[in-house]
């Protein structure tokens, strides 16, 4: 498959690494920071010649995205921390371990995605720990299995497929769902 991936700047290293090992041809484009849903939608509408478009962003940026002529596959994830933690279960566990108020510190680009209060938390990837200075608060080891499955085309219920003529909407159970435009 030929895939176009639009990624969050905080996931830059992980996305390029995993794309290099994917069995698919993946064209990775890192969005400028800060990016909004309007810019992402414009890029989606301009994209041609791919089998699928992969917007690798959290639910705030993916809500309302519509598929033009190419289907979208979107992770059902709240934010970049959720993607790096590898599962909804680990993401919820991090909330319960931090009085339901973790403040994610994922590079400078994601600061606007989390509240300024709460327990400082960071997700560290053992491949890149020597590049990330120690930060205050709790650290969680990254689990790249969710991102690996995403880039390898193993799309199950953790991912939403938005077909042409549909758009992504918030869903209280599944994080995201698709509905007709």
Q: What this model shows, in words?
A:
- This is DUF1638 domain-containing protein.
- The protein has 181 residues and is α/β, with parallel strands linked by helices.
- The chain has helices at residues 12-21, 37-46, 59-62, 80-85, 88-97, 145-151, and strands at 2-7, 25-30, 52-56, 72-75, 102-104, 119-124, 138-141, 159-162, 166-171, 175-180.
- A three-stranded parallel sheet has the order 2-1-3, sandwiched between helices. A three-stranded parallel sheet has the order 5-6-7.
- β1, α1 and β2 (25-30) form a beta-alpha-beta unit.
- The mean pLDDT is 86.
Keywords:
181 residues, alpha/beta, three-stranded parallel sheet
Give a summary of the structure in a few sentences.
This protein has 181 residues and is an alpha/beta fold.
Outline the secondary-structure elements.
Blueprint: E1 2-7, H1 12-21, E2 25-30, H2 37-46, E3 52-56, H3 59-62, E4 72-75, H4 80-85, H5 88-97, E5 102-104, E6 119-124, E7 138-141, H6 145-151, E8 159-162, E9 166-171, E10 175-180
Order of strands in the sheet with the most strands?
2-1-3
Span between N and C termini? Answer: 26 Å
Shape: globular
- Helix/strand-derived class? alpha/beta
Query: Could you tell me the number of beta strands?
Result: 10
Structurally, the number of domains stands at 2
Give, in order, the helices and strands.
Answer: EHEHEHEHHEEEHEEE
User: Which spans of ≥5 residues are poorly predicted at pLDDT below 50?
Assistant: none
Total count of helical runs of at least 4 residues: 6
Give the averaged pLDDT, no decimals. 86
**Proportion of β residues?**
25-35%
> How large is the radius of gyration?
16 Å
Largest sheet: 3 strands, parallel
* Helix content percent band: 25-40%
């Amino acid at each position: 498959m030929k895939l176009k991936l639009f990624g969050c700047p905080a996931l830059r290293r992980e996305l390029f690494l995993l794309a290099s090992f994917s069995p698919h041809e993946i064209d990775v484009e890192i969005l400028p920071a800060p990016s909004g849903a309007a810019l992402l939608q414009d890029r989606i509408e301009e994209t041609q010649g791919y089998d699928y478009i992969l917007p690798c962003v959290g639910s705030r940026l993916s809500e309302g995205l519509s598929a033009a002529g190419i289907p979208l596959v979107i992770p059902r994830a709240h934010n970049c921390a959720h993607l790096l933690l590898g599962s909804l279960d680990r993401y919820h566990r991090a909330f319960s371990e931090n009085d339901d108020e973790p403040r994610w510190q994922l590079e400078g680009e994601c600061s606007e995605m989390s509240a300024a209060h709460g327990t400082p938390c960071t997700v560290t990837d053992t491949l890149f720990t020597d590049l990330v200075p120690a930060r205050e608060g709790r650290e969680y080891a990254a689990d790249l299995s969710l991102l690996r499955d995403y880039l390898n085309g193993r799309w199950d219920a953790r991912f939403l497929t938005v077909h042409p003529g549909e758009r992504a909407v918030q869903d209280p159970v599944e994080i995201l769902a698709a509905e007709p435009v």
